[in-house]
Structures are given as C-alpha cells and as structure tokens.
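This part of the workshop introduces the protein records we will be handling. A record pairs a protein's sequence with a compact description of its fold. Backbone structure tokens are a discrete shorthand for how the chain folds in space. The question running through the whole workshop is how a given chain folds. The record below serves as our worked example for the rest of this section.
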Amino acid sequence: MSRTEKPILDPAEDDEMLPEHDLSKAVRGYTAYRLGEDPGDEMAVERFWRDMGFEVERVTEPALKFSKAPDFLLRRQGTTLAVCEVKSMDEFDYTIRENHADGTATETRHNWRESNLDRALHRADLASDQLSYWNGDRELANILVFVNHDPCVRREDVQGALLELMGIDATFWFEVDENGALNPKPVVIASNEGQKKLRDQLGLVIDGRLVLASAA
C-alpha cells in the first residue's frame, strides 16, 4: 500500500502554528474532522468490508467544505445497516519545513497532543462526532475503524476508554506491517450491547476473522 504524504507547513507562508480545531487556518486543506485520514487506509478498509460481504458506499458532501460526514455506508441487498468512519494513526501528525537562505531546508515532525493516548482518543472523539452527526438516532450501527501505524500506540492502553465513548457501537482495530499493509484480522472492541448490534444488525459474529478485544 502506498502511503500518502503528511501535511507540511512552510513558515514563510504560515506565520504561526494553530491547533487543528481552528478552521481559520487549516493545515493545507486538512480540517478538524479530516485529522487522521489516509486515502490508502480507506481503500484497504473498503476492500475489507467488501470481502466481508457488504456493499460499500462512500459518503460525500461536496457542498460542505468542512464536512462532518463519515467515510462509508455499509449495505446488504440494498439495505443500509451501518455507518463507518476510518481514522489512521501515524507516528506524527504534521511536518514543518523551514527554508534557509543558503537554499537548504530542514523539516521537523510534531504531534498536536503530547501523549499517544490523547492522540488516539482525540481521533476517536472526532469519529464519534461524525458518526453521531450522520446517525444520531442510532438506527444504524456506528462503527469506527482505527488503523494503527504507530508502534508506540498499544491497543491495550486505549481500548477501555474506547468502550466508554458514546456514539460508537464497535471499534475495528487494525495493525499494519512494516510495508503499511493491514493485518487482515482486526480486533473488535465492543461492549456486550455493541456485540449484539453487530450480530443482530450486520450478521457479524466473533469468529476466526474477527477477534474480540478482551480475548485477544
């Protein structure tokens, strides 16, 4: 899987770094709700859902510049069953490039938040907002897919907090290898209620392809 470049800031054009929630000066088109998005990961997750027997429709809202729309709708035989948002976790959130008078340039990599736990949960919070925005009445299942590229982030450290998030029925946690390829067997983080919704509404059971977090 090819990886996309992270957003890069040039101090000559951006005189100060603003936090990602300030949309007055978004990072090269990245808005608050686009933080943690990777087109390559989204394509891989779309293939996963199709392999699981779902019809996948990408959600687009071209009229909204800063859309809170999630990534996918999951269907079977034309019936919409779930809403899905994909969030990716790289080692760094953004890069600053500084050009020097001698023609050279230096780049430094940074994160919006200090701890990896805060970084992961912030992405999950954004996803919860997006899923609730689209599916506030919870008629459909709300699914977060978390793709982890950061070897310093451990699922075991965040899964308890993910279970407590409102607006998410289940989190499908994917790890990637050194080439950026997704492990085909995600770990499912879901409460008993969430597992029941996956089973009754989507026909998904915890088996050889899906591993329950508490048993992983």
About this structure: The longest strand covers residues 79-89. The CA atoms of residues 39 and 67 lie 16 Å apart. Helices lie at 39-51, 116-134, 155-164, 192-202.
